[in-house]
Amino acid sequence: MARSTLVLDLDQTLVSVVDHDEETLLQCVTKRPGLDRFLKDMSQVYEIVVFSASGASYVKKIVSSLDPTGEIFSAVFTGSDTDWLSGQRVKDLRKLNRDKIVWIDDNASLYPYNPKNGIQVPPFHGDPNDSILGALTPLLLEVALGQISVENASELFVRARNK
């Protein structure tokens, strides 16, 4: 069975970045709680790709800090890889040229061509008590193993958050 691809957004999904310039960028990055464990666990069952609407130099600097050995992320797509649709940047997953794709992002409107492939998460703004990645892990493992669909995982995630 071919491994699925997990497409992860960067800003407000994996990290929060505030008040920075080129020199202080990495000091201003706050990782979503549980991120290191999440990436390690997901890399065992998924090919992991970052797809951010931000600029290439910014994205690559943060990605390099999250994955200094280059073992987690297989590809990085940035703002120059996005398209424009009705005046808004969008992420067209067809550009990845992969068969089975699951996306995780805080903004579902960025995926008008692939709405059923993803799970929208609440934006991360640095809350140290955030537990979203821990809640996603078992669902994404079930998707990777073919036990549930991405749509079912998304519905279960929403239901669990609304309890």
TrEMBL record:
GO biological process, alphabetically ordered: protein transport
Alphabetized UniProt keyword annotations: Mitochondrion, Protein transport, Transit peptide, Translocation, Transport
Occurrences of domain FCP1 homology (ranges): 1-143
Listed GO CC annotations: TIM23 mitochondrial import inner membrane translocase complex
Subcellular location: Mitochondrion inner membrane
MF terms (GO), sorted A to Z: phosphoprotein phosphatase activity
Membrane topology: Single-pass membrane protein
PROSITE patterns: FCP1 (PS50969)
Source organism superkingdom: Eukaryota
Subunit structure: Component of the TIM23 complex.
Entry similarity comment: Belongs to the TIM50 family.
Function as written in the Swiss-Prot or TrEMBL entry: Essential component of the TIM23 complex, a complex that mediates the translocation of transit peptide-containing proteins across the mitochondrial inner membrane.
Protein name: Mitochondrial import inner membrane translocase subunit TIM50
Organism: Selaginella moellendorffii
